[in-house]
Design a protein that fits this description.
Length: 270
C-alpha cells in the first residue's frame, strides 16, 4: 500500500523541489484522492517522506504538520437491519449451526471470543450468563423465546453451542470468518459484531436505559451505550413517547391515524 502511494505521489508531484513544498501543496495532493480515508493516507505517506528528508538534512521542517487530518465519521461495523436478519433466517433454517449463531449473538450481545466458549454450563434457570473475556464484566440475561427454540434442539451432551467440526472451540477469528461465510450465503453484509450492535440498537429503540444496554453488552461503563440511545430510531421513540400521553388507547389511535389521513373525502373526488 505505501509503495503504491509513493508511486502515485511521484506522478502527481511532478518537478516541484522537495524544499519548496508548503501546506497548500500537501492539501492539493490530498484532494486528488476520493474519500477521507484515501486523503489521510496521502497525508500519512507524505509526512513519512518529509521526516526522512529531515533526517537526510534535505529539508528543515515537515510541511505536513500544518495540514490537519480529514475528519472520518464512521459507525464502524455495519449494524444488521431487520430485513437482513430475516433474510439470514430464511437462508439458514432452525436447527442449523448458523441459525443458532445468529440467535446467540443477537440475543446475548456476546462477542466472538465469548460466543465460541458458550455451552450448557452457561445456562441455568432460564437464563444465560458468562463473563466477558475483554472486560471481565459478567452478563446475566434471560433467554428469549427465539433463542430458547434453537437451544431446545441441541442435545445436553453437546458441551459447546458452536463447536468446530472436531468438537473443539473456535478461535475468535475463526468463528468470525466462519460466520461471515454464512452471511455471504444469505446475501447479507453482516458480521457477529454487527449483530451485537443490532441487539443493542433494538434495546435502545424499545426505551432501554444506558446501563441496561451496557449490561447486555457486558461493558464496564455507559459511553458506548449512550451512542445507541442517541441513535435509536426517532420515529419509534417519538411514537412511544406520545403513546404514553394516553396509554394503549392513544397508541392505537396513532397507529390508525395514517389510514384515516389516507382516506379521501367526497369533496376530493370532485
Amino acid at each position: 500500500m505505501i509503495g503504491r502511494e509513493m508511486d502515485w505521489l511521484r506522478d502527481q508531484a511532478g518537478e516541484l523541489p522537495v524544499a519548496s513544498f508548503r501546506g497548500r501543496h500537501i492539501e492539493a495532493l490530498m484532494m486528488r484522492k476520493e474519500g477521507p480515508a484515501a486523503q489521510d493516507r496521502v497525508r500519512k505517506v507524505l509526512s513519512m517522506l518529509f521526516n526522512h528528508a529531515i533526517r537526510m538534512e534535505l529539508v528543515a521542517h515537515n510541511p505536513v504538520r500544518a495540514v490537519e487530518r480529514i475528519s472520518q465519521k464512521t459507525d464502524g461495523f455495519h449494524t444488521w437491519g431487520d430485513a437482513e436478519i430475516a433474510r439470514f433466517r430464511d437462508r439458514h433454517a432452525p436447527g442449523t449451526k448458523a441459525r443458532l449463531a445468529l440467535e446467540l449473538a443477537l440475543n446475548t450481545g456476546a462477542a466472538r471470543q465469548d460466543l465460541a466458549k458458550l455451552g450448557w454450563q452457561n445456562v441455568q434457570g432460564g437464563r444465560i450468563s458468562y463473563r466477558r473475556g475483554k472486560t471481565g464484566v459478567e452478563a446475566d440475561l434471560p433467554i428469549l423465546p427465539e433463542l430458547a427454540d434453537e437451544l431446545a434442539r441441541l442435545p445436553r451432551s453437546q458441551l459447546l453451542f458452536l463447536p468446530t467440526q472436531t468438537g473443539a472451540a473456535h478461535t475468535a477469528a475463526g468463528l468470525g470468518n466462519w460466520f461471515r461465510d454464512r452471511a455471504n450465503e444469505a446475501g447479507v453484509p453482516g458480521t457477529i459484531h454487527g449483530l451485537r450492535k443490532a441487539g443493542a440498537t433494538r434495546l435502545a429503540e424499545h426505551g432501554a436505559t444506558e446501563w441496561e444496554i451496557s449490561s447486555f453488552l457486558a461493558h464496564e461503563g455507559t459511553k458506548e451505550a449512550a451512542t445507541y440511545v442517541r441513535k435509536a430510531s426517532r420515529s419509534k421513540l417519538g411514537t412511544a413517547a406520545l403513546a404514553r400521553l394516553g396509554g394503549t388507547k392513544s397508541e392505537q389511535n396513532l397507529s390508525n391515524l395514517s389510514e384515516r389521513l389516507d382516506q379521501r373525502s367526497p369533496k376530493d373526488e370532485r
